[in-house]
Amino acid sequence: MKTHYDAAVLDFGWGMNYGSLLNGYATRSILKNLGYSVLHIQKPGAKEDDWEINGTHNYDFALRHYRDDISPFLPLSRMSELNNLCDMFIAGSDQIFNPYFSGSWAGYSFYLDFVDNSKKLASFGTSFGTSFGSNYNNSRDKTNKIARLLRNFNALSVREQASATILRDTYGVEAQVVAEPVFLLDIEKWRKLAEHSALDVFAGDEPYMLTYILDPTPEKRAAIEYYSGLTGLTAINILDGRSDLWVQNNEKLNLPNTPSGVIAEDFLKGFINASFVLTDSFHGMAFSVVFKKKFISITNRKRGFDRFGDVLGEFGLLHRYTTEEKNIPHSEKLLEDIDFSKVEEVIKSKRDSSIEWLKTALETPVDIKVKFFLPKPFYGIETYKSKSSDPYFVLSKDKCTGCAACYNACPVNCITMVEDNEGFLYPRSVDKKKCLDCGKCKRVCPVLNPPERVRSNIKPKNVYAAYSLDEQTRFMSTSGGAFSEFARYALANGGVVYGAAYDEDFAVYHVRSEDEKGLARIRQSKYYQSEIKDTYKRVLDDLESGRIVLFGGTPCQCAALDSFLKRDYEHLILVDFICHSVCPKLAFKAYLSELEHKYGAPAERVWFKNKQNGWHRFSLRIDFKGKFEYYMKPSGSDDYFKAFLKYRLFLRPSCHGCMFKENKRSADITLADFWGLKWNDPNHHDDQEQGVSIIMTRTDKGQRIFGDFVSPRVYSEKHELVEVVPRNGGMIHSQTVGLYRDYFFQNIGEFKFSKILALMDERERLLQIERDKPSITGKLTKIGNVIITMAERSKIIIDPEAELILNANLPEGSQKECILTLHPGAILHVTGKFRVSYDSRIILWNNAKMTVANGFVNFGAAISPQREIIIGDDFLAGSQIAIWDYDSHKIIEAESGDILNNPTDAIKIGKHVWMGLGSMITDSVSVGEGAIIAAKAVVTHNVPENSIVAGVPAKVIKTGVTWRV
Fold it and tell me: Which of 65, 889, 912, 941 is an active site residue?
């Protein structure tokens, strides 16, 4: 062994598998052709008597071909010593990234965890061998560790798209797909290597059929006998190169002409001289292609089957591949000759681009790392199930709102509010010796024991659109200034106001105010949770002294105060708002500290919904001490707003199942932004850009205060509750858990806030690219101006031999559009040849499905499922037809709020149905086989087979008919 090498390669070259051994040989040969000296790294952690190395054919192969360029045997703890020998390290080809190995006997050595930061790291043609990614033998911690190790690489490449997808989706790193290394070596070098074989059975004196079977089964044995008999060729069989498996595999296969002691050179010679190959091995398939042999490739799910389809699909040889391990085709067609001309073109192109990629990777400066971004969530939605050791003793974390009712109610102060690792406050008993076991903490909990108002679920008395007539108040408020006007009622009558305010470090807590100056601190929304401390006790003291108290807070805080007080006080006014959810100060402090560092000064003012650019285009503005310059970005592009509203990264666990939605509220008044407002008064100018509030009066007290005091101080219009819900979903619905919530909390200590958001935005961009790719094995034909829009999780599936033709029959010179739109989760499945003429619209709404077979739809069609539309074979439609399973707009019952016109079932159109000009099918109906729908008919009920229906609504006018073109 030399004292210095340009590069070291770690792969399965020490293994007994012929394919692993030979693709390692190919990688080293390519590196040496590029002028690099190469060290072969021995099996990580192995000793000299290791069963895979001691006296094995693979070790003898290394000694023959690598001579002294082999690393010493090193335990995992000493692998770092190789840094003294090499300038760069390469994770080689084959399945070395398979999660089965990582974190087990090999540690994380295949991810080059032992390499110093001063060295270059690359992977070349590496593989996972599976599509399961992180969910295959990987814990969350293991996945995170692998992701961090991969970020140290200067360049990553894999040999199949499935592995690139795993790296992107599971580990958040970008990789190039290169060719399997055995395709990159010149065929003459393989022939020269095979000259070392002395095995007579492959001498080539008589034509033979070669089989290379890693996992024998009765089905594979039967296929060998069938094709041997069909071709008249003797079958010569190679088994797995592992000597410890040869005896049992030979017994399973139970066929003559199965030589033992086959070495890699024999393996190559077997392919070179074979007339036909049958194999369940990826490398068996690969060398069949290299030596241009007719072959049948049988999938091998046990050893990773994605790579078979990837490679054969590129070569146009999928017809040589069967995924039926239990039902292998017996067909003479598979004996037909293969035209390898296209294959050679693909291999040449891949060889040139792959070697060029490797050259560039090896020349990449050590300080340039692989591109990385946000991976997909590990286990999807987090459930927040508490463990038995959870210290939050009153409620589990998925239920506790942090309202502090129990903290305020404890008569001996043995409860404190403690921050968890996400920055949320939870009650915890810190002195159990003091505890009286009185149960007040549980009785006062508004989740365990909701107060009467919450249980009553009473609808608001009235709903108003309103804004303060004081322009300064309106501008300085989040919405229309309604809270300030209600607060002024309390102040004008000698009362006090409680609400959320910032302290000097921009933590948020509830404060008590007796004047306008204090009210200014409470005004405006703070988008993270306020700390209550002993506020409820102070409110009680004020109420008992006879003072009017207005308390403003979240619905859960108002319910907590209601529960804490135990009775209704006429001079208490509870004001809540339509709550999106609450966040921890930890998240905002991480965001703010980054900006303070950037601007070189501490923050002086935070204004979450600054209206400098208008209420509809509100921004987050932050001013800094001693700085004229300030930070301001619209909510759609500001990182904190995106993290909070778009990605839902750090919402309190209980907010995902909030029990204080709809009308389950203690408040006398509920406030919010009146998004989507349309003024009733046609003479009223539609100037909303300074903000408009929703005011819901929920009690007689709230209505009286609005009418007597607030109404003269605001412009207001009466509206209906149903106008509020469409643009204020938080009124009814809890927020779903952000898919990357775990990722945020795991990485906020390692990355800047802006870095995490940048990773997330990149992930969204990649998802957009991903969802723009239809799943097509058939044909998609677009004629002229076709607009296809696909949202997240949507799919266009076109079966083999099927075809979707859009803008068919387009007149010459016409600019008419054909539009196909798939909203999130929608699936369009084409099973036959389906033609859609020009000027047509097909729109699939969220999670809708549409299945079509052979058919033709004339111009001007409108087809749009909200649930599902199924169109059978031989469908014919005239121009300007419509098939809709919904009414476009919701019809809502005013009393219950129930939606009355949701589709109840799919529209199902049977075979051989004819729709006439301008006809329409709707309302979840079924149309029987052979039916005819007359021109202008509107079908709202099921249509019998072989009938004609006409009219509005359509009725049967004749039965027992059929039709033909």
Answer: 889
